[in-house]
Amino acid sequence: MAEIKIQPKKPSPISYVLYALALVAIVYMVIRSLTASKNPVQTPTVIVDTTDVAGSVNDFVSFLGDTTNTRVDTEKSPAYTSYGLYLLSAAIGATATRDAANDSNIIQRSTRLQAISDSIQNHWTPIEKSVRVRDAFLRAAGLMDAIQAKKYPNLKQQVAIVKQKAEAINPNQEVRFQKPKVEQFFQQSAAALQAMVQKAKTE
After folding, report:
1. Which residues are CB-contacts of 158 (< 8 A; sequence separation ≥ 6)?
2. I need a labelling partner for 117 at 20 to 30 A (CA). Which of 14, 33, 102, 131 fits?
């Protein structure tokens, strides 16, 4: 009987191509894993439209300049104070985002101030509100001071006046009887924020 010789089947050209692709994929994954630690993901830069900042400040300034608001009687004074604080906290928040976006402490304080202003606007009680308003005014002044120290060294004295006006609020007296003090605080705050807007335009 004749002996039958069985020869092994040779790999097809397609197999070589698949082997080569697999090898390339392995090499790519190894190189990627080695270079990943050397090239960390970059955090995108926060870009803030400065016109939004100026707009928020202008909203606050316009509110103060509206005689229907500045001439309100004693009974309406709490509403004037709470809405003015709401607009002020928004203006400070926009300014903080523009000038201190990389400072988590300032951003967190700004967010907290806006939450407090919302709370004061929605829940008004006479004496308790005076304590909270004074606290909010001091927080606002503190934030402006932090932003000033970070970006605007020449505005130190102007922001110091804002703090003085905040401290003048009597926590033991209803806000409706302290409207002149509230107006002075708002006016000084508006002046400081407007100065920051002008300084930012020249930088």
Report:
1. 148, 188, 191, 192, 195
2. 102
Furthest C-alpha separation in the chain: 124
91/197 Cα distance (integer angstroms)? 11
Task: Write out the DSSP string of 4-63.
Answer: PP-PPPPPPHHHHHHHHHHHHHHHHHHHHHHHHTTSPPPPPPP---HHHHHHHHHHHHHH
> pLDDT tens digits for 96-119?
999 988 999 999 999 999 999 988
> Residue written as tokens 């001091």?
138
Classify residue 154 by burial, with Cβ atoms within 10 Å: 0-12, 13-18, 19+: exposed
Q: 195: burial class by Cβ within 10 Å (0-12, 13-18, 19+)?
A: middle
Of residues 95, 124, 126, the one with CA closest to residue 110: 95
Q: What is the pLDDT of residues 175-197, one digit of tens each?
A: 889 989 999 999 999 999 999 99
Rounded CA gap, 134 and 140, in Å?
10
Structure tokens at 22: 């697999």
140-144 LR contacts (CB < 8 Å, sep 24+): 140/85, 140/88, 140/89, 140/92, 140/113, 140/166, 140/189, 141/165, 141/166, 141/189, 142/109, 143/92, 143/96, 143/106, 143/109, 143/110, 143/113, 144/92, 144/189, 144/192, 144/193
